[in-house]
């Protein structure tokens, strides 16, 4: 690629658009609160193995009104009530009955806007689906159960706490006995799912995060492209993030049209005009908006009329950059396979900074796959130890699928990042060991 301008602007984009952790993305945005009703925080029917005031660990002021749900590793944990995520601690992978493990508890905390918060403890490592500052629906998936921290067996530790951190009494509207307060040994129902699917929820949140990054850079064209990537935006206007994204899209569209008009009228374009014209031509190329498409056609002809070497050099990078933008769009749509495909396309034809950001996106997606399937194998290892005869074939099939995908993920890593093979090698050996242990457990269980 000949242009020296393209790496400059794309490298700038890479510093913000490809950073996963966006701090306080909801600053200045009012978050809707829910009714004061708590529902079960687990995605499947299960029993309570320690209730309020339980003698093992529910005796102090921080846990007196807590419940422990008897569920296996890897079961869905959901929000008992809508609110805002104020704490996410998910880095631990150890636990046990000794109090030395107390600081190693993975947990998520949600503020419900009325002085009450809910806490979800002992979760699996790196399986959080929410981030700090995000709004969550009642019943929305937060993460998965585990055995981290002070936990002799897998379970979910759930409690309602006040603003001082003290555990407070609460009740569930979906538990009919004893005025909504379950006790040890009681069976509780599975949580009620929200009206939106988890795929739609995560798609909208990814888009919102991308918009926050675009706003910080002032790149309204990227924001417009991102908001066009989410599915059925107008169909879910009752959902908070759908409304916010729709409003942002309208703002982006107005700014984009104004900038396109200014660029078309530029009689003596400078470096910034070259950069913005090229960026607009590829970032908005997928737009179906008739007015924007017409303005892009005019800009394309205007750019040719500039008769500038810098202007024509942008054409060489369009293919790689478009693939990169489509990769980000695939991420917004919760399509990791599509993201890997598009980032790979960008890498095959990219140079300089585009290669850098495409590689960054591809590395992130592959790493997410690696963590996800390693965690699945760890969950299946636990299940293989206690699997009933009727469940063994399913555990074996799931383990085979996870192991197969894990190998494909590692092959992709080695193909694109041959100089950084240690993480892939270690992950593959760990996955191989887990798969072999699962098969051994299932074989021994059948004897």
What do you see in this structure?
Residues 1-31 have low confidence and may be disordered. The strands form 3 sheets. The chain has an 8-stranded antiparallel beta sheet with strand order 8-4-6-7-11-2-1-12, with no helix packed on it. The chain folds into 3 domains: 46-188, Glucose Permease (Domain IIA) (Distorted Sandwich); 197-350, no CATH class; 363-445. Helix 4 packs parallel to helix 6. Strand 6 and strand 7 form a beta hairpin. The chain has 447 residues and is an alpha+beta fold. It has helices at 5-17, 198-217, 220-227, 240-264, 271-283, 290-305, 309-332, 336-349, 352-386, 389-416, 422-445; strands spanning 46-50, 67-70, 76-78, 83-89, 95-96, 107-111, 117-121, 135-136, 141-144, 149-150, 156-161, 187-188. It is globular, with a radius of gyration of 25 Å. The protein has 11 helices and 12 strands.
């Amino acid at each position: 690629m000949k242009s020296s301008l393209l790496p400059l602007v794309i490298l700038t984009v890479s510093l913000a658009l490809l950073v996963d952790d966006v701090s306080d993305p909801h600053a200045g945005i009012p978050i809707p609160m829910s009714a004061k009703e708590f529902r079960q925080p687990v995605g499947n029917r299960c029993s309570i193995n320690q209730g309020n005031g339980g003698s093992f660990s529910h005796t102090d002021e921080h846990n007196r009104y807590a419940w422990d749900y008897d569920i296996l590793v890897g079961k869905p944990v959901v929000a008992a009530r809508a609110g805002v995520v104020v704490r996410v601690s998910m880095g631990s992978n150890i636990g046990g009955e000794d109090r030395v493990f107390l600081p190693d508890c993975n947990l998520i905390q949600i503020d419900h806007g009325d002085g009450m918060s809910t806490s979800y403890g002992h979760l699996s490592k790196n399986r959080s689906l929410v981030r700090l500052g995000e709004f969550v629906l009642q019943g929305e998936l937060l993460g998965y159960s585990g055995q981290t921290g002070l936990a002799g067996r897998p379970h979910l530790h759930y409690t309602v706490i006040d603003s001082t951190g003290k555990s407070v009494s609460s009740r569930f509207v979906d538990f009919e006995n004893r005025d909504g307060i379950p006790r040890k040994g009681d069976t509780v129902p599975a949580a009620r799912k929200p009206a939106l699917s988890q795929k739609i929820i995560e798609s909208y949140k990814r888009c919102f995060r991308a918009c926050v990054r675009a706003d910080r850079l002032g790149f309204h064209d990227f924001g417009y492209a991102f908001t066009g990537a989410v599915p059925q935006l107008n169909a879910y206007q009752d959902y908070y993030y759908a409304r916010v994204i729709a409003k942002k899209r309208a703002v982006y569209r107005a700014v984009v049209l104004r900038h396109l008009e200014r660029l078309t009228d530029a009689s003596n374009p400078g470096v910034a005009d070259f950069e913005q014209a090229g960026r607009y031509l590829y970032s908005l190329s997928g737009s179906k908006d008739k007015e924007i498409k017409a303005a892009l056609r005019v800009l394309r002809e205007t750019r040719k009329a500039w008769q500038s070497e810098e202007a024509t050099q942008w054409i060489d990078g369009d293919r790689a950059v478009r693939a990169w933008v489509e990769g980000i769009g695939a991420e917004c749509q919760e399509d990791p396979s599509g993201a890997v495909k598009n980032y790979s396309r960008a890498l095959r034809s990219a140079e300089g900074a585009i290669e850098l950001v495409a590689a960054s996106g591809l590395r992130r997606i592959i790493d997410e796959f690696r963590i996800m399937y390693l965690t699945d194998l760890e969950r299946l290892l636990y299940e293989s130890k206690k699997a009933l005869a009727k469940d063994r074939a399913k555990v074996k099939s799931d383990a085979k699928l996870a192991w197969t995908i894990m190998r494909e993920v590692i092959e992709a890593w080695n193909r694109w990042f041959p100089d950084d093979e240690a993480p892939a090698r270690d992950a593959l050996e760990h996955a191989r060991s887990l798969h072999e242990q699962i098969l051994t457990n299932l074989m021994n269980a059948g004897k």
